Amino acid sequence: MNEHFKNLFDYNKWANNKLITSLKNQNIDDEIILRLFSHIVLSEQIWLLRIEGGDYPNKNFWQILTLLECEDILNENQPKYENLILQKDFSDKVSYKNSKGIEYTNSFYDILTHVSFHSAYHRGQIAKEVRRLNKEPVLTDYIAFIREIK
Description:
The model has no long low-confidence stretch (mean pLDDT 94). It is globular and about 45 Å long. It has a single domain (2-149), classed as Up-down Bundle (Four Helix Bundle (Hemerythrin (Met), subunit A)), CATH 1.20.120. It has helices at 2-25, 31-51, 67-87, 108-132, 142-149, and strands spanning 93-97, 103-107. The chain is mostly helical.
């Protein structure tokens, strides 16, 4: 199981880095795209805080960060996810409050799965927005990651 989630989060890191590089190389500074990408990195950060039992004072998942700020947060998040994947039992339950203050309990397995899918979902939205600007979206499909690392 550790290997599966290690692979998913290696993919997530790869896809996010590909996206940052593509947005920088194409000089894309679109508010909608930055809001979506900021949402990805902030959500990943907030899930880490929830898993670790911490609180997060700023519940604004939709604030707009710069690409550099996004990159910094991603670089902070990745090693924390890697450590959790190595240390946690995937059946462990995590109790947390959502952004509206409602308490939930989910397994570590389900939360990691959600984080991975959530990020991929919003990267797809970003690809659509890049096309709207008549630019070329970067390929961040999981299979592209697998092909590249083998």
